Amino acid sequence: MDLKKAKAFQVPRKRAKRVGRGMASGHGGTSTRGHKGQKARSGWSMRRPFEGGQMPLFRRLPKRGFSQARYQEASAIVNVADLAKFQVGATVDAQALSKARLVTRAVKRVKILGDGELKVALTVKAHGFSAAAKEKIEKAGGKAEVVQ
């Protein structure tokens, strides 16, 4: 492509509606709000779930059960393929993973998943392992140790 022949690209944008600028503007008088009523008044705003006085959907539906998700700590997920960055015989723990920028420092739990291949023998210390990940680490001659 020749940059000399390139033309400036214009994004089609609708002009802003300028209300309250007199009758000749087409948006004068009631300023597109119609006549009287709640929406015509200044300061009007509607709550998000408001359904015109009808019982809102979130109050009509039954509430059942209990979700544990709010109280569980999220785990940082690291795949077996990401562990190939480490040298043979290295001990890979949460600190080593954060140093290698595979997890953030704020994460308290680390789980290793089995996506990818591993050809390096490593000692991996984590809070959880998938069955495939554990198998691949041990197949490469390493150890998978669960940390509490």
CATH architecture annotation name of one domain: Ribosomal Protein L15, Chain: K, domain 2
Mean pLDDT: 91
Strand order of the largest sheet: 1-3-5
CATH class group of one domain: Alpha Beta
Tally of contiguous helical segments: 3
Largest sheet: 3 strands, parallel
Structural classification:
alpha/beta
- SSE order: HEEHEEEHE
**CATH third-tier fold name of one domain:** Ribosomal Protein L15, Chain: K, domain 2
Write down the Rg. Answer: 30 Å
In terms of DSSP E residues, the strand content is: 5-15%
What features would you describe in this structure?
This protein has a domain of 71 residues: Ribosomal Protein L15, Chain: K, domain 2, CATH 3.100.10.10. The protein has three helices and six strands; from the N terminus they run H-E-E-H-E-E-E-H-E. Strands 1-3-5 form a three-stranded parallel beta sheet. Strands 2-4-6 form a three-stranded parallel beta sheet.
